């Protein structure tokens, strides 16, 4: 498969997932669709059912924690929905930049730029499919627990711990209705997680590709400037220099737009992810409900994805800065040297992703969070010892 075919296959997967969750990113004529109203209704039902169940079992703190173990992820996805809808046209612009500046300009592998585009497109295609399989497999694992309880203890329990208000799940129809609501809610959450995480990785990965292409062009320009026949290549040098300037400015604007969309999402992700991890750590220590281990896995995978891509952007930004600093600028014309100075000035604003400006989105911040979570886990274990 070619790079554009791999890319379009990924876009088709994301577009398919966007329909049930109502995020009409690929529909320019409609801001809200039937799926949008449907998912908002499901949000209201889910949070009301959580409130109802928590109030009903307010004297049983362990059961309350079991009910709330996925509330953090649900709240996070709800916020992501509204952020994505509010920045719909900005996200479409980023996707259009990817198609115009990468896949249409470098459709085959004959050039070094085309080879880079193909390699990253193939890696992202594999990563998206692995992410989809990992998230979707969790529903099967959750379904095994009620079956295990039924065959080992002869009792029927719902798939999740939140109950539908005013519905007695101990009756046949109540049990079926409760499980139906829970499965539909969880499926919509899975689709939303795959779409949100997959879209972020898509945008960041292609931003890294664009930086690689810029660095290739900068190296080619340096070779042309250092060659013996500079006078003969003067027109090509000017053309390639202008192209490098445009690419650098586009890269800065591209990652600024990603930060606009992703900054608030990351802030909510960190708070809700830490809440969910702490909740499930306590459940792992106090109960034998193995679903809490699965929620821990989901939360850690999500946090790892976001901080890993943020760290990748930071490392690639450092490589870009080094390539600009090492560029033989003294061989340029005087006017072009002034433009190079402007390029250096833009480096004062590093290309990074942040947690809404509170912290850089990198592995250093991730290790700080993991350290705090480790201390919390040790405190719980010492308390129970």
TrEMBL record:
Gene name, please?
GPROR70
- Any keyword Membrane? yes
**What organism is recorded for this protein?**
Aedes aegypti (Yellowfever mosquito)
Localization of this protein:
Cell membrane
- Extract one GO BP annotation from the record: signal transduction
**GO CC annotation terms, alphabetical:** plasma membrane
Topology class, membrane: Multi-pass membrane protein
In the record, the note on similarity to other proteins reads:
Belongs to the insect chemoreceptor superfamily. Heteromeric odorant receptor channel (TC 1.A.69) family.
Question: Under which name does UniProt file this protein?
Answer: Odorant receptor
InterPro entries linked to this entry: 7tm6_olfct_rcpt
* One Gene Ontology molecular-function label: odorant binding
Q: Which domain of life is it from?
A: Eukaryota
Keywords from the named record? Cell membrane, Membrane, Olfaction, Receptor, Sensory transduction, Transducer, Transmembrane, Transmembrane helix
